[in-house]
Every structure is written in C-alpha cells, then in structure tokens.
Amino acid sequence: MVRTYQRKRDKPPPDLATLQRAVASIVKDGSSIRAVAENFGLKKSTVNDALRRYRAELDAQPDVLETDKSPAKVLPSERPANTNSTTEAADHGEVIQDSEPEGPAPGTSGTAPITPESVRPHPRIDPTKRNPSNGRKRGKTRILTDTPEKEQLEKEKHNREAKKAKKKTPQKKITKTKKMVGRRQTKVGNKRKPSAFIRLSVSETSSSEPELPDDICDDESDMSLDLGEDDVVASDRPVSPIQIGKFVLVKFELGKSKSSCVYYVGLVESIDNDVADVKFLRKIGPKFVFPEIEDKATVDKKDIVLVLPDPSSSGGTARSIAGHVFSRDLSAFNIK
Question: Bigger pLDDT: 91 or 120?
C-alpha cells in the first residue's frame, strides 16, 4: 500500500473566505460545527479554531457595533501554514499581507468607567464600647511650654503631692486618760455584790480629788486598775518597786512606732543598779509557762513597765501546775 501522508506544512491553507462563510453559518443559522465542516469540505478542528478566534475578537472589541460583527469584519486574516516561502501561497491565488491589530475606536476607552462607589472609601463604624471612666484621661495635642498649659500642669502636680502628703501624715487622736479605782467585791450569800468604781481624771490635781471611802482596800492585789497600754507606757516608773522574785512586764521596741513594741512577762532574779536580770516566760493561752530552754536577759529598769501581782497555779496535774495565771488584765498589751 502506497503511503499518502502529507505534512501539515506542505498542506495548502484553508480558504479565508470559506472559513468566514462557515463561521457565519454557525453564528447566524445556528448550525453545528460537524455539519458546517462537511458542507464546506473543512476539518472540524479548523472550523472550531476559526470560531474560537472569532469569539475572542468579539470579547476584545466590546465597542463594535452589531452591524460590524460579521465574521468577515471581525475575523482576522488567516496566515498561511507554510511560512518558509511565499511562492507556495501564491500558487493558490492568495496574497499574504501583514496586518497589525486594530486598536480601540477613537473616542472610546477599553477600561471600565469610574463610578462613585469605586472612589468612595469604606464606611467607618464607631467603636461599640465607650467607657470614659476607665481611669485614664484622654490625651490631646498641647503645647507644654505655653503659659496656660504650664500652669495647669504645675497645679495638677501640686494637687497630687498634697494628696500623698495628706495620706502619709498620721492623724493624732486626743483622748483623755482616766484611771479607775475599784472596790473589792464581796459575796453576799450566793450573789456577788457589784464593785463600785470611781473615775479620777489624771489632769485633776490632788487637791481636787474626792475623798475615798474607808472600805477601799490598799492591797495591790485587790485593786482593779483599768489602765490601757498608753497609760502604762506614759509612766516612767512601774507602779510598785522592783524586787527580786517578782514578776514584771518588760517592753521591747522593735521599731519607732508603738505598734512595733512587744511585751514579755519575766521573773526578776537579780538587780544591779539600773539593770536587772530577768528570766522570761512564754504565753500559752491565758497562762504563762517557763520554756524548756531558759530565756534570760539583762534589761534596763526603765523598760520594766509594770510589776505584776503574784500568780496563781491552776489544775491538778504537774503540767497544769507549771502554768501561771495573773489576776491582772493584760489584754491591752501585745504579749509574746
């Protein structure tokens, strides 16, 4: 069998007028590509390519009038497939001319028109939460070296410093110190007779003091003194003279303020001029006990603020007997 294959470059190009008529038949009559290719003796791929180029040219030229949309005016001229020589194309009676792509029609623009919506910025939404009382003052543009602004800043600074100074300055409480001298309570049957108290102002002189009843006891253990911590600290000397074997209340200053003072109960073991050797006790609830490890120290007499009455032992066990309870109310002192 003789081979009759012919290369594409050797094949003659399709007639341009035939292609234009074929495309017009598809566009106007609505014929199918296969039927048009058979009628005009063309390949389906050739007709399909010509139709595709026609539609591409229409999309590139949207301003072309309806009367100018015929395939003969829109479809570009077809170049011959064989470009090696011009003699082969001339043998088929075609004239090859280079055509430049036509630009847009005068007076028209290829871009879309500019509308106000495309120029107008996006709408701005106000913040959903506004809290002006968040503690921070809204800033503003100011010239700090200007006289009114400078005076305002100085005034604000002065007010802040005055507030701080007012907070730091402690307010002194002026209270009138009083002492109470009580009468011994006596039992009448099963009832306890209430004690009578006489309030004496410290500021009053001895000449203005009223006469005390004769039944007031002079014994220190029977006296009920309602003295606060400030009353005891204000006095330079304890109520009774310091003696060996007496229990005393000793003050220790941990700082300059009164709240930093602590008190310890101790037993005086020896006295030497202005100092005394004291053996301290520890407070456990309402009782005072000597610790297993002895706690002794030498203190000045001026640090002894009170001489306590002799304690009483409570309980029947050896451990209970070791605890000492004082009849004097010591709740006003920070005792350790």
Answer: 120
